[in-house]
Amino acid sequence: MRAQFVLSEIGVGLRRNLTMTFAVIVSVALSLALFGGSLLMSDQVSTMKGYWYDKVNVSIFLCNKHDAESDANCAKGAVTDDQKKQILDDLHKMPIVEKVSYESQDEAYKHYKEQFGNSPLASSLTPDQMQESYRIKLKDPQKYQVIASAFNGRDGVQSVQDQKGILDNLFTLLNLMNRGALGVMALMLVVALLLIVNTVRVSAFSRRRETGIMRLVGASGFYIQAPFIMEAAVAGLIGGGLACVALVVGRYFTIDHGMDLAHKLQLINFVGWDAVLTKLPLILATSVLMPSLAAFFALRKYLKV
User: Fold this and answer.
1) Which residue numbers delimit the FtsX extracellular domain (predicted)?
2) Nearest-CA neighbor of 200 among 236, 243, 237, 242?
3) Which of 30, 55, 151, 200 would bridge with 298, disulfide CB 3.0–4.6 Å?
4) Which domains does the chain have, with CATH numbers?
5) What pLDDT digit, counting tens, does each position of 88-143 carry?
């Protein structure tokens, strides 16, 4: 009987404050959708780091005859065969080096034409202007400085470049975007909490007569508060459910179908469905606990029981 009364009061409260209940549901849904999206973005950045950092190379670019005329690092002239052999031998002796591959001037020219064939500069370049290079795969990409300190300034070496630096800029941008999403999520969360508190306040005021009678007949504080807390929890749960739907639908239409990014951007290893599904219970739990706690503390102020 008591459970039936509490459930009936929940329905009455939700219908009585329908507009505010709808606002609570929408704000909770948006804030938790952003929360889930931020968690997935963090997973995506970690996945991409693991995928790309495992593939980055350190490149040692060798001097050519054109560099000898314009680059201070190549003031002693183009790299010689003996210098190339010495660099290669030294690389093979280094324990941090996993693999070394050589790119000739013709290969470098071919790759440049494939990537930048439409640029105005490409039509004026010739193979002899390209640089020979050694592409080094490290066992630990973080040990780039070991290669740089060993070969920068050596005769025949124009420069040592680490592709990881380019990726670091990309991941910094992604992390900034993720922090921005978390900031918006925090703002929406504050709005949702304020709406919940206000909804509970209005609901408690509109039912002050009923709660007064219940207090006079000896009803416990929890029994009086339970309908209000459950109203907030139900509204939050509906919002959490909508947030879960938004994440699932968003992942389905952006990566698998619709935009079909999984096929269009095959170089990116996108997070799988397992990452999405593991976030849903957390979102649902948050959607119930957050409004319930907000309602509980609001009732201590606006409903003296």
Assistant:
1) 56-160
2) 236
3) 200
4) 3-52+169-303 (no CATH), 57-140 (3.30.70.3040)
5) 999 988 988 888 888 888 888 887 777 666 666 667 778 888 888 998 888 877 77
